[in-house]
User: What shape does this take?
Amino acid sequence: MAVIAGIDIGNSTTEVALGRVEGGRVNFLSSSIAFTSGIKGTTQNVLGVRNALSDALERAGWERDDFSKVDLIRINRAAPVIGEVAMETVTETIITESTMIGHNPSTPGGVGVGQGETVAFDGLANCVPGKACTVVVPGSVDYERAAAGIAAAMERGVDVTCAICRNDDGVLIANRLPRVIPIVDEVRAIDRVPLGMQACVEVAPPGRVVELLANPYDIATIFGLSPDETRQVVPVARALVGNRSAVVIRTPLGEVKERRIPAGELTIAGPNGKRGIAVDEGAEKIMKLVSSSQPISDVFGEPGTNVGGMMERVRRTMSNLTEIPLADVHIRDLLAVDTQVPQKVVGGLAEEFSLENGVALAVMVQTVDLPMQRLAAAIEADLRVKVEIGGIEAEMAIKGALTTPGTRQPMAILDMGAGSTDASFMREDGSESLIHLAGAGQMVNTIIASELGIDSMDLAEAIKRTPLCKAESVYNIRLEDGTVRFFDKPLPPHVFGRVCLLHSETDLEPLPLNNVPMDRIRSIRRSAKQQVFAANAVRALERVAPAGNVRLIDFVVLVGGSSMDFEISPMVTQVLSQYGVVAGRGNIRGTEGPRNAVATGLVLSYLDEVGA
Assistant: This one.
């Protein structure tokens, strides 16, 4: 009789399966999960292993630190992996001579479209009746004085068509005028607004977005532009799409251009030698080159560029952690996804942001197996329990997945974690093929954070894993699928009118994303998952399927932390249904759900090896 602890050290979590092997059978005693300490496969993992094993011992009815109850620890044989993600912006909107103000102040004033020559507020008294004016109100002028001055000019017959303000006074000024005009406020660089130039201001009604100033042909009509000049303002129109308010000012020397940023070139080394591609060619072309270069022996980035820095950074990080020379650290896979990245408009006046084209990149770095031997020795020294390195991670995962009721060989598994997507296929004779690919939960978080313009990866993780709702009143919320839920008791005041994460039926967390509609957040979340997990599922299975044909696989079991996501499993299942594959989330040992597959496989493989 022996008590075996199978321990799966993953990129984000460490899982334990504790089993007693007796009479040729395994009786599983408990399981547990803890956060991985440090980067997977390094000696930093010891603390996470200790915490996870302590939890498993306690759940089995023993003392937390009584490691003497364990006869053997088996850890997964997996070289350290870094799943690094970078966002490469490949276009940029540049404005010179102050030709655009386009942003979303929370409360612009008035509504409609106005056009006229820009005039300083103090110069209104000198405007002649009938002149169409766009008033520029500096921060030193309060709303009462501004409204009184504009109203007086209107009474004299001056055609004040619109206004641009420094302070957050748009609504206060609009409410005090004899007629409605569009007012864009919160323009921080008000002193840089050129005077004596033709300007157009548009404020859309609540719930709508600007239409004229988001269309280059309407801009051409308003300002009488030539075809060449119209081509030049296309980046302006594109940068204003989705705004509720906007200003375009025509200056004789002004220039707007969209510049392509050399994000750098990737060089992929494979069986056919080294082949290069520029990052700004886009994800589709990059992935075609990745596919045709299998198996990849290494990936390099152009020195002195963003992507070159990324590749060098992950190599150096791995080398520092494992004490392995840089020459022995190789990038084995890469995933590229086209995305949109909010970037500050160069030369804008109100801290405008434009959605620029970008490419998200995830790479997987692997080294030799030496660090795992160091880790095993470190765990053994800390816990005083014999430690051995078990089978390859994907092999162990499929052994564990086969404990899911309703499955049989031949079968494939998709292990979807935080840093990588792993696949393995077990044939009827027990032989296996396996693959480890870059791109998983961390990449989805990066895309969500980038497209929504947020800095916190914890918030991006919460958005990825949690359904959305909006508190429409103190007694009801609207869910992201359009259904409405009512409550007997009033909701907390701080969630009213806000888009929230729906952690439970009554636990609502308002998101710090002003003016971002719920539908857009949901669309970004689902698109990121589709491009990473659904695409990687097909890519991985094509690599392990017989003759590369996914249709020759009967069963696919989804395991790993990301398969517990409320959207990812149905999304991947739907994609694989097109290939006639029976796919679904695993239920390891009929009790664990999709978790614990590798840890369970490590215990079961011990039984196979000793035959006892």
